[in-house]
Write a structure and sequence with these properties.
The complex is a heterotetramer. By secondary structure, chain A is of the alpha/beta class. Chain A contains four helices and four strands; from the N terminus they run βαβαβαβα. Chain A has a single domain (11-134), classed as 3-Layer(aba) Sandwich (Rossmann fold), CATH 3.40.50. Chain A has helices at 20-29, 51-59, 80-97, 115-132, and strands at 11-16, 38-43, 64-69, 105-109. Chain A has a four-stranded parallel sheet, with helices on both faces. The model of chain A has no long low-confidence stretch (mean pLDDT 92). In chain C, 45% of the residues are buried. Classes of the chains: A alpha/beta, B alpha/beta, C alpha+beta, D alpha/beta. The interface between A and D is large, with 54 and 54 residues.
């Protein structure tokens, strides 16, 4: 019998330093669990996330990319997440327009106090990505095994 | 049209003669009817070759970007739609308004020779247009086509004969073509399934040869060094070595000009592989209008574009990816 | 001389592509381009392709080697295999046939480019006699006869038939393998078509373009001509002319850092682009005038100076048709050269 | 290429139990640039830090990766340590393998793989790090306190005493806050007014304190050391300086039907009023909602009778601009609205009141002159039932899931005061738990139950309803495990307290983070409880979470000391992770300028030499003292000319690369 290899998605999470990264820390110190496939990159603000980074992640083999920032209105830098919201709304819409599955990109607002929300968001996102399977529409062939 | 060409020549001659300007940026006659070249006329004698015919679709506003530090003054011929780009360039400080003299010229729609050739017509020797029809003479015989069928893409969705910025107008009374719904094709794509859209774009973008014509002709792409040419940007690439790089280039380019693109259609006009690149930009125009209210880049100078602006209750990116076409 | 009804040409393409890769002009609805012909594709022989047949031997991107690490963290270098299977390139016009000769001079002289050489060795060229030249064509300027270009097999399209005339042993082998699909034909069946093509060539708007004034030995004079400034001022610095050109041969070598090692590949480059030959100190041509001049000086002066007078333009007219601003080699030739009286 | 050292911390068993340290060290060793990798039980200990310092010297390290807890925890520690060993502090990167790995993933194999990925990302990032030098910025020697309750006043007084100027902005016409409404305090039963009003007077008379009452902070710009606030001083329609507080206007005002906020709406006040006798400033204010002159342009009687000529109907809101070095949030709390608790009959029955209303009913300055009587008919009550945890520890949407902390004690206080003054009244308290953590608190509670005869029933109340002119409280007694019904004349609800509604707006304005209950978040729950994560913003009192008066005062003092610690500095070291524009790439398009929330980007016409082309170009220039390092500009810039030091495009993409590598 052929063994079916379990699909382990590759998920990149960009978390703003002030809210979501701290929320992720809280998830850790509260010993909440979420899938190990989620790997966090710390950025100062969700407004620092350049669309290039998202595409780069897909290029290199990510199956899902999620951006987490402070709740709108609570940005440590006043307005960064507002800009991020517009940029990502447009970028995600474009990815959808080009036929990329919608579920592969997300933006979630997670505050420093929302450790549980962070874990829930990551659990949900990972299960969505597992459902979508490996990302074949984006990604550089030279990065595939 | 010929009458207008004459008026333009006369005015250009006056401006050069009087020393009001040092150069005129216009179109120079080519070998065929359909290949006028954007050119800078600095001498009155050269003006014989200045032309304004049915194929002067090129948007000349970008030629001023290179003149920003020039101490000379240039007159530029701009069709109504080109003036939006000029405004946007002024907003972004990419041109020096004080060394530019804008001559707004009338327009009744320009033709796309690719569309003529797509009809199987080759060996073109002459083209003449009336209001509705175009007569094409070739070495293989003559043809008559409806003008509507062979308009440039941007003229099919003409936004009218208003010059949003100018110093003087010539022939502004020309009747512009009746526009189609410019979001029709975008909406059609949106209504497709994701799989169909993916196939569509894969088919289109797989032809991309990364000649950069779209970028270099685009009046919004005025970066000194494009991120795709900059070895230190992390995403530099000279060719589409993989399918992903086709997507990467066009997504990032569309994003970089989002909210700045005036929808002038140069990208699609110049693409040697006839990729409908303007659809990507137009998708952004449509999204921006729907998400943040109607916005036209360049309709007035010095306005804040929607991507350097925000609202408290903007649409959530997750909501965006939940709407649009079918799953 | 063999022939097949045009209506049945797909069966011929099917037969060729069964054993070998077949590279042919394929209609993709918006444009016609050389591509690997697959069952169901429509091959088009009466339209100019956007890109040239050069793609078959010198593709835009080509992997050359791979670097990775073994279990002991030592670097392994894999040189990638060169082409080792025969393939057919069909429908190559006179201009492109001549262009391949130009490329051969570059890639096959020492040091030989093994990737290119392998492709040339394994290729079988089916040349195509032009039946419907376009107004942008000016191959006759460079002494090319579009009516009878030399391939391993010559192909002619006359009324409802495609005719095949074998020239080389390679071509003979190919055609004989297709014998069951082909009918016999007379050599004279194609004579009228050749005459017609040559007649059309004389009527084309660019038939009078001449290279007078250009060529080896005019370097200094041409280099310093003032007209370059006016001509180059239109150029937007894209690479369209270069990439559609059948003879442009510049490439860049780059490394791509993938997940399982580094791929070294080469890809076309264009002297029209601002980052061409970029070096640590910057670029040796800093203005578009210099870049623009370089391209045309190469085609019309440097190339003949180094290759017994052979220009590296073949008059295919692709750049004439495709330049976004309609600035092209014909305008350059005419502006600074002469015209036939 | 840098010489990189990697140090993997066990954090005792916190990391080592679920991450295979040896594997992480081995994987790090083969990464490009890594010349040294080791592990230690506690990298943050002095011994651990010494290992790092020695390695830096011995292996000539110019980049360090610490694989340990969150950078929010010890990044600063290791950066300081780097500095001690002569390495630029910004050549240190942290791989968070505790909060993001070992505490999340229980499977050691899984955790180890993820830890290696995160370590590789940190190594990739540090390879692209460049030494950064911190700049300096100045400190405005003045503090702003938002809120004039006991928390804000204490903070202001402590700062003022240290010699710094303080402005207290209070949204109501008087300072004093909630404490001013309280009759007595637990567990000492001393009079709240007697301890609060002297503080109010101190604040009002302190030379370093300016009270800006009836005002709200409208916007705050800037950053630690240099905030710029705009304060809206609402129109009082009374000249604050001229008014003598004589009260004649109050007496003469014909419009006396407005609910008296200070007495929780239990009685009325005139349209022109002084909130309470000890109000500071002791100046009248006109309620524009009910004033006949302001609403209908008639009357104006107060103006006629005012001898001081203080009434001014033409007064307009005034905007004050001030600069501050530090800002303290002391926005306090309010009891929640209890009308959602329909079963308890608050809206239906006048004799169902809240504790704060009871507080006013028992206060000598209250609506009844301190005589406890039923609100409905003024008669003397015989049975009073207290219901605890109304909306506290309540996980439904109408309540708060936290404990309001003060209710057990104040109810005990009320019960005791009632039994003391009116021994004929029976007092029953329904409770979930009685929480008496605090000095002398449990003793106080026991006195109530044992010495004062207060009946405590552990159980929740299901319903309060009216029957035969009485209230009936129906609840369960969990000790005897039976349903009980108790007749009552009055029912007192211990309403949960919530953050003042202004807190959310203030927090947004200050970019201070806020939790799901609208309490401001502290920079660290244990180690930095009075600071907000936003530099220069401090927390005082209940705005940070429920607390009683002594705790509030203690925290207020702590916040003050943090403020003083900041204001004594002449210069602040600025974060060097700021935006920077590449002159060769910038095209001067203004996208970054338009987006910068700090006004940190300006333009200069500058002569550049771009590979031989000399020309004057319009270039973006970042002022590093103003830039806070958010990086929004770097994304707005299409050419990539704008980048963020410490988080450059290439660094982040290198992390992406490393993480995605399979």
């Amino acid at each position: 019998m052929q063994e079916v290899k379990e699909f382990k998605p590759n998920i990149v999470a960009f978390c703003c330093n002030w809210c979501s990264y701290a929320g992720a820390d809280l998830a850790g110190s509260s010993r909440l669990s979420y899938p190990a496939e989620v790997k966090i990159i710390r950025v100062p603000c969700s407004g620092r996330v350049n669309p290039m980074f998202i595409l780069k992640a897909f290029e290199k083999g990510a199956d899902g990319v999620i951006i987490c920032g402070c709740h709108p209105g609570d940005c440590h830098y006043n307005t960064g997440n507002f800009y991020a919201r517009r940029r990502m709304a447009l970028l995600y819409s474009m990815l959808d327009f080009m036929g990329i599955e919608k579920g592969r990109t997300r933006v979630e607002w997670v505050s420093a106090a929302e450790g549980a929300k962070f874990a829930n968001v990551m659990n949900k996102f990972t299960s969505d990505i597992i459902e979508l399977g490996e990302c074949v529409k984006l990604g550089d062939i030279r990065c595939k095994d | 049209m010929q009458g207008l060409e004459k008026k333009i020549k006369d005015r250009a001659s006056e401006l050069l003669q009087s020393g009001a300007v040092d150069g005129i940026i216009g179109w120079e006659k080519g070998q065929f009817e359909y290949d006028p070249t954007p050119a800078v006329f600095t001498k009155e004698t050269g003006l014989d070759n200045l032309c304004y015919n049915n194929f002067c679709g090129a948007n000349l506003s970008k030629y001023l970007v290179g003149k920003i530090t020039s101490d000379k003054k240039f007159a530029v011929l701009l069709k109504p739609c080109d003036t939006y780009s000029m405004n946007q360039l002024i907003t972004e400080h990419r041109v020096n308004r004080s060394n530019i003299y804008i001559i707004g010229i009338g327009c009744n729609g320009h033709l796309n020779v690719e569309k003529i050739k797509a009809q199987g017509i080759s060996g073109i020797t002459a083209v003449s247009a009336s209001d509705d029809h175009v007569n094409i003479s070739t070495i293989y015989g003559d043809s008559k086509l409806a003008k509507k069928e062979i308009l440039l893409g941007k003229c099919e969705v003409c936004r009218g004969n208003v010059h949003v910025i100018f110093d003087e107008l010539i022939g502004e009374e020309l009747q512009t073509p009746k526009p189609d719904d410019r979001f029709e094709m975008v909406a059609k794509l949106e209504a497709m399934t994701a799989e169909e859209r993916f196939k569509f774009w894969q088919g289109e973008l797989s032809r991309c040869i990364r000649c950069n014509a779209c970028r270099n002709a685009c009046p919004a792409c005025t970066c000194r060094v494009c991120v795709f040419d900059n070895g230190r940007s992390g995403i530099e690439a000279k060719a589409n070595a993989s399918e992903f790089e086709e997507q990467m280039f066009h997504i990032i380019r569309a994003f970089h000009v989002a909210a700045r693109c005036t929808d002038c259609g140069e990208c699609s006009r110049v693409c040697p592989e006839n990729i409908p690149l303007h659809l990507l930009n137009r998708k952004y125009v449509k999204d921006i209008n729907e998400f943040y209210g109607d916005y036209q880049a360049g309709d007035i100078a010095e306005q804040r574009n929607p991507l350097v602006n925000f609202g408290d209750d903007d649409i959530e990116p997750t909501t965006v990816s939940d709407k649009g076409g079918q799953k | 001389m063999k022939k097949i009804a045009l209506a049945k040409i797909d069966s011929l393409l099917e037969a060729i592509s069964k054993d070998m890769n077949l590279f042919a002009p394929v209609d993709n609805k918006s444009t016609v381009n050389y591509a690997e012909w697959k069952s169901g594709d429509v091959a088009v022989f009466d339209k100019m392709t956007v890109r040239s047949a050069k793609d078959a031997f010198f593709p835009q991107c080509e992997n050359m080697s791979k670097f990775s690490r073994d279990q002991d963290n030592k670097i392994i270098i894999d040189k990638l295999e060169t082409c080792d299977k025969d393939f057919v390139v069909m429908g190559v016009r006179g201009c492109d046939i001549k262009a391949i000769a130009v490329l051969d001079k570059v890639f096959l002289s020492e040091p030989v480019d093994t990737f290119y050489a392998a492709r040339r060795d394994h290729s079988i060229l089916i040349s195509l006699s032009c039946s419907k030249p376009e107004e942008t064509c000016f191959c006759t300027t460079f002494g090319i006869d579009p009516a009878q270009p030399k391939g391993d097999v010559e192909m002619y399209i006359v009324s409802d038939y495609a005719y095949f005339n074998t020239v080389t042993a390679k071509g003979e082998k190919l055609i004989s393998s297709l014998n069951n699909l082909l009918e016999n034909a007379k050599d004279s069946d194609i004579d009228s078509a050749k005459v017609a093509t040559r007649d059309i060539m004389c009527k084309l708007p660019l038939h009078d373009v001449t290279t007078d004034g250009w060529g080896a030995g005019v370097l200094e004079e041409m280099f310093n001509r003032p007209e370059w400034e006016q001509l180059s001022s239109s150029c937007i610095g894209c690479g369209t002319c270069t990439y559609v050109c059948p003879t442009c041969q510049c490439y860049d070598i780059r490394d791509y850092n993938g997940s399982n090692g580094v791929t070294r590949y080469r890809c076309w480059d264009s002297c029209m682009k601002s980052d061409f030959t970029m070096m640590a100190h910057g670029n040796n041509r800093t203005t578009q005038l210099q870049r623009f001049r370089q391209r045309f000086m190469h085609k019309l002066v440097y190339s003949p100076a180094n290759n017994d007078g052979e220009f590296s333009c073949v008059g295919c007219g692709r750049c004439v048709a495709k330049c976004p601003v309609s600035m092209n080699i014909v305008k350059v030739i005419k502006t600074m050269g002469g015209e036939k009286l | 290429m840098l010489n990189i050292g990697v140090f993997v911390c066990w954090c005792g068993s916190n990391i080592a139990a679920t991450v295979d340290i040896d594997q992480v060290v081995a994987a790090a060793k083969i990464q490009p640039g890594v010349v040294f990798a080791t592990d230690y039980q506690y990298m943050c200990s002095e011994a651990g830090q010494k290992i790092m310092r020695n390695a830096v010297l011995e292996h000539k390290l110019d980049g360090v990766v610490i694989c340990a807890c969150s950078p929010r925890m010890h990044e600063a520690t290791f950066r300081k340590n780097a500095e001690k060993s002569g390495l630029n502090p910004f050549m240190v990167e942290i791989a968070n393998i505790r909060e993001h790995v070992s505490w999340i993933h229980k499977d050691k194999a899984v955790g180890t793989v993820k830890a290696i990925a995160l370590v590789n990302a940190a190594i990739a990032k540090v390879s692209l790090n460049a030494p950064l030098i911190s700049g300096e910025s100045s400190v405005t020697k003045r503090a702003l306190v938002i809120g004039g309750g006991i928390a804000g006043l204490q903070t202001a007084l402590d700062i003022a005493e240290a010699g710094f100027e303080v402005d207290v902005v209070e949204k109501l016409p008087t300072i004093g806050g909630n404490m001013a409404k309280i009759d007595k305090t637990f567990p000492t039963l001393d009079c709240a007014a007697c301890i609060l009003t002297p503080k109010m007077v101190d604040a009002a008379s302190h030379e370093n304190i300016e009270l800006i009452t009836y005002s709200e902070v409208e916007s705050v710009k800037g950053f630690v050391g240099s905030f710029k606030a705009t304060i809206r001083k609402k129109a009082r329609y009374v000249d604050e300086v001229a008014c003598t507080g004589c009260g004649v206007c109050m007496a003469k005002c014909p419009s006396k039907k407005s609910l008296n906020e200070f007495n929780c709406g239990l009685n009325n006040r005139p349209s022109v009023y002084i909130p309470f006798a000890q109000a500071i400033p002791n100046v009248a204010v006109i309620d524009p909602q009910s004033c006949i002159k302001l609403t209908r342009d008639k009357c104006g009687l107060c103006q006629t009778v005012c001898e001081a000529k203080a009434i001014d109907f033409t007064q307009k809101d005034e905007l004050i601009e001030r600069e501050y070095g530090a800002i303290v949030v002391a926005t306090g709390f309010q009891p929640i609205k209890v009308d959602k608790f329909d079963e308890l009959g608050y809206s239906q029955n006048k004799d169902v009141i809240t504790s704060l209303e009871l507080e006013r009913l028992m206060n000598a300055a209250g609506p009844t002159g301190g005589k406890l009587q039923k609100v409905s008919d003024g008669s003397h009550p015989h049975d009073i039932v207290f219901i605890q945890c109304v909306g506290s520890r309540d996980c439904t949407a109408r309540g708060k899931n936290y404990c309001s902390k003060i209710c057990c004690m104040y109810t005990t206080k009320h019960a005791m005061l009632i039994r003391d003054k009116y021994p004929d009244i029976n007092v029953t308290v329904f409770y979930i738990d009685i929480r008496t953590a605090g000095k002398n608190y449990d003793e106080f509670y026991r006195r109530a139950a044992e010495d004062y005869g207060v009946t405590y029933i552990k159980g929740q109340v299901g319903k309060v309803y009216e029957e035969d002119g009485f209230l009936v409280v129906q609840g369960s007694d969990l000790i005897s495990n039976e349903q009980i019904k108790i007749k009552a004349d009055m029912v007192v609800l211990a309403a949960a307290i919530e953050a003042d509604p202004s807190a959310k707006k203030v927090a947004s304005m200050l970019t201070a983070s806020i939790d799901t209950n609208n309490f401001l978040t502290e920079a660290h729950a244990k180690l930095r409880p009075v600071e907000s994560p936003t530099a220069g913003i401090f927390l005082s009192g209940v705005c940070q979470g429920p607390k009683d008066i002594p705790e509030t005062v203690a925290q207020a003092g702590a916040a003050a000391s943090k403020v003083i610690g900041l204001l004594v500095k002449n210069k602040l070291v600025t974060n060097p992770c700021v935006a920077i524009a590449d002159e060769m790439l910038c095209s001067g398009c203004s996208n970054c300028f338009n987006i910068c929330p700090y006004g940190a980007i300006g333009y200069e016409e500058k002569l550049v030499n771009d590979h031989g082309i000399r020309e004057t170009r319009r270039l973006a220039v970042v002022n590093p003292a103003l830039c806070q390092g958010c990086g929004a500009c770097s994304v707005a810039c299409p050419s990539g000319a704008m980048d963020l030091l410490g988080f450059t495009n290439k660094q982040i993409m290198a992390e992406v690369d490393a993480i995605c590598k399979k």
